Amino acid sequence: MKRTLFLCLLALTSITSIADAGFSIRRRTAAAKITFEGLANLTHHKLLLVEYSYHSGDSLLKSPFISYRDTLTDGSSFVIQNGGKRWDESERYLHFVLAKNDSIGTVTDSFTVYMKKWNYKMIVSGEKNGKLQYTLNKSKAYFNYNLIDEDNNSGNNKTVRMLFIISSLAGLVLLLVLFLKRKNASTAS
Amino acid sequence: MSLIVTLLGFFIIKFVLQFPFYYKNWKRAALLVLLTSLTVAPLITMLYHETETDFLFVYVAMILFDAVVLYFLLLPNIWKAALASFIANTIVIVYFYLGNG
To answer: With DSSP H G I counted as helix, E B as strand and the rest as coil, what are the percentages for chain A, rounded to 5?
Structure first.
């Protein structure tokens, strides 16, 4: 009786936890990330991150004190994780400008990306009349699970996540089988 | 931490720390350590990254889970099971925190 009670408790607790974590019952998002590709297509211009701010307004023209002047290169990325593990609270407005490659660095275009809960991938195709030509792909920012390699984030995250769920369920089922086998053996003896 | 690294770490820590308690049945102890690690490691990784679950509760649940498994499937000695489970899971949770930041 005691064994059956513990068996039920163990199974219920584990399955509830797996359901909670694995099947999106309370699924939260991860740190937002933006990456850039195709910046080599900008021959006479460069793209710069000029401000990393809490405020939505493009302060480039309002304030002469620009906080950042990072020139972006292919593969550049920014992760908004100021809140540490509690990245749900991390949000930033990233202000970018397109500037000429001349000595003054004349700004010809500017735009702002609001970063929270979503990942962005900006693919730059070039520049036309001083305006940046690009496509911006958006995907929900979920935690990147890895099976073997820490740095391998290119795999299908949904599949890897499903493997986490399957591993956990497999371990639990095998333990339950051992429980039941032992119970039957002790009943027979 | 990747799943393989987490699983290996859990297995080694738990097996080494539980070995002195169950050295007479070390093969079965190893099997149980493998299965409990397989159940718990991916599950707490998901709980850690996707929920706001209090990890003090998770830590206690892991100790209880292991204690129940050791008691019913290895040796019906509750004190041995509780102590082995407490020591192993304390180190395991520290390892998990170090690995996941």
So the answer is: 30, 30, 35
A118-128 and A32-37 strand pairing = parallel
Average pLDDT per 10 consecutive residues for chain B, totaling 101 residues: 92 95 92 94 88 87 93 91 96 92 69
Lowest mean pLDDT among A60-74, A99-113, A123-137, A159-173: A60-74
* pLDDT for A64 beyond 50: no
**Lateral strand order in the sheet of A77-80:** A77-80, A32-37, A118-128, A131-140
- What is the predicted ipTM? 0.91
Q: Write out chain A residues lying below 8 Å of B50, CB-based.
A: 21, 26-28, 143
CB A3 within 8 A of CB A183: yes
Q: How do the domains of chain A map onto residue ranges? A: 2-26+147-188, 32-140
Give the whole-angstrom CA distance, residue B54 versus residue B92. Answer: 16
Alpha carbon distance, N-terminus to C-terminus of chain B = 9
Nearest to B1 by CA among B36, B59, B44, B65: B44
Q: Out of A13, A22, A178, whose CB is closest to B73? A: A178
Give me the residue spans of the domains in chain B: 3-100
Q: What is d(CA A165, CA A22) in angstroms, rounded to the nearest whole number? A: 6
Q: Quote the minimal CA–CA distance from B87 to chain A in Å.
A: 20
- Asked if B82 has any chain A CB less than 8 Å from its own CB, the reply is no
Which are the contacts of B24, defined by CB distance < 8 A and separation ≥ 6?
A: none
DSSP secondary structure letter of residue A117: S
Q: Which of A7-16, A71-80, A162-171 has the lowest mean pLDDT?
A: A7-16
CATH architecture of residue range(s) A32-140: Sandwich (2.60)
